[in-house]
Design brief:
The protein has 2 domains: 3-56 and 303-394, Aspartate Aminotransferase, domain 1; 59-301, Type I PLP-dependent aspartate aminotransferase-like (Major domain) (Aspartate Aminotransferase, domain 2), CATH 3.40.640.10. Helices cover 39% and strands 18% of the residues. It has 14 helices and 17 strands. It has helices at 3-13, 46-49, 58-68, 81-92, 105-124, 143-148, 152-155, 173-179, 203-216, 267-270, 286-301, 304-325, 348-356, 379-394; strands at 25-29, 32-35, 40-43, 98-102, 130-134, 165-168, 184-189, 192-193, 199-200, 219-223, 247-250, 261-265, 329-335, 338-343, 359-360, 362-364, 368-371. A hairpin with a 3-residue loop joins strand 16 and strand 17. The chain is globular, with a radius of gyration of 21 Å.
Length: 397
């Protein structure tokens, strides 16, 4: 089918929950996507930070093909080798000691919320259930995670919401402290607020939050669904801030395109779960875990992280140079290959202009262009990205 036919079928059969752009993709390889008419696009969205190794990376494809021929699903009533090996890898490369697998970032955050409440109520009593989250945060679309999300537009129309959440101002330690009471079980935050406009946490603020949580015996949860798996230049963003959380959530890039989420925790916290306390039928299935294990090994063995640091610095420099030349850009911010350009105009039309030039970018918070290219993007491709952005934005000055 061509794009117009696909759009007609989608309009007829799919719920209207996405403002999709007028393009239908049928194939991908590396940093490139190809539409139904055969046109090539440079993908700087990467499935919203999912395709960290690009499209159809040979190591991931090989792992999936091998696993598909042997075992797809058994449920978690039994052990499977890919799940155990992936859990081992994550523990060996993070602060954590135990892992729970699920299918998405929302499920991973749901797990973290439940784990924090179960731990806190067992240790301090049934009153210890509140979670402090940040304004402009984004944690998912389930009832609990959209309640945790600090954006009214996400919560609107879905009440009554889940009780036990309160919101503090991001990068403001006094705001966090003022909301902390003897009912507080945990603080949940993103090291970089991606959906919130690519707002990077101040290192001093994160250290203050860590110290406050430690002093008050409150758990610290990092939502690294978007920032994890090399996106910022280290395997996990927390490594760049000199602190460790008690719980961390992962998804998106972990599977390299396969749906998988993970909640990583220290032994002390993880022990709050016991058989029957939490579960996921498809969570950690052999196929998703085999793909994720290939992603993890390739990230480390292929020296991808060093390339991310180089590419991230190169992209940041190029974006800053654009800002110096183009008055529509009010700020450049981000880490590694998670970058945002705040504009003085609406970003949606700019995204569509870039699409017409066969460049895929994203807009969040209405005026922030978000760049999430595959971690394998070359410097030459970054030059191409910057050239198109320069042309498109200069035409709107």
């Amino acid at each position: 089918m061509i794009t117009e036919e696909i759009q007609r079928y989608a309009s007829q059969y799919l719920m209207n929950t996405y403002a999709r752009l007028p393009v239908a993709f049928i194939r991908g390889k590396g940093t490139r996507l190809y539409d139904a008419e055969g046109r090539e696009y440079l993908d700087c969205v990467a499935g919203l930070a999912v395709n960290v190794l690009g499209h159809c990376h040979p190591d991931v494809v090989e792992a999936i093909e091998h696993q598909v021929r042997h075992l797809l699903h058994t449920s978690n009533l039994y052990y499977t080798e890919p799940q155990v090996l992936l859990a081992e890898w994550l523990v060996e490369h993070s602060f954590g000691h135990k892992v729970f697998f699920c299918n998405s970032g929302a499920e991973a955050n749901e797990t973290a919320i439940k784990l924090a409440r179960r731990y806190a109520t067992a240790k301090f009593g049934p009153h210890r259930v509140e979670i402090i989250t940040m304004t402009n945060s984004f944690h998912g679309r389930t009832l609990a995670t959209l309640t945790a999300t600090g954006q009214e537009k996400v919560r609107r129309g879905f009440g009554p919401l889940v009780p036990g959440f309160t919101y503090a101002t991001f990068n403001d330690i006094s705001s966090v402290e003022s909301r902390m009471t003897d009912k507080t079980a945990a603080v949940l935050l993103e090291p970089i607020q991606g959906e919130g406009g690519v707002i990077v946490a101040d290192p001093t603020y994160l250290k203050q939050v860590r110290a406050l949580c430690t002093d008050r015996h409150v758990l610290l949860i990092f939502d690294e669904v978007q920032t994890g798996m090399g996106r910022t230049g280290t395997l996990f963003a927390y490594e760049q801030f000199g602190i460790q959380p008690d719980i961390m959530t992962l998804a998106k890039g972990l599977g390299g395109g396969m749906p998988i989420g993970a909640c990583v925790a220290t032994d002390e916290v993880a022990n709050a779960f016991d058989p029957g306390s939490h579960a996921s039928t498809f969570g950690g299935n052999p196929l998703a875990c085999a793909a994720a294990l290939a992603v993890c090994r390739t990230l480390m063995d292929g020296e991808v992280l060093a390339k991310v640091q180089q590419a991230g610095a190169y992209l940041t420099k190029g974006l800053q140079e654009l800002k110096d030349r183009i008055p529509l850009i009010t700020e450049v911010r981000g880490l590694g290959l998670l970058q945002g350009l705040e504009l003085s105009i609406e970003g949606g039309p700019v995204v569509r202009d870039c699409l017409a030039r066969r460049l895929l970018i994203n807009c969040t918070m209405e005026r922030v262009l978000r760049l999430l290219p595959p971690l394998i993007i070359s410097l030459q491709e970054i030059d191409h990205l910057l050239h198109i952005l320069s042309d498109v934005l200069n035409k709107r000055v």
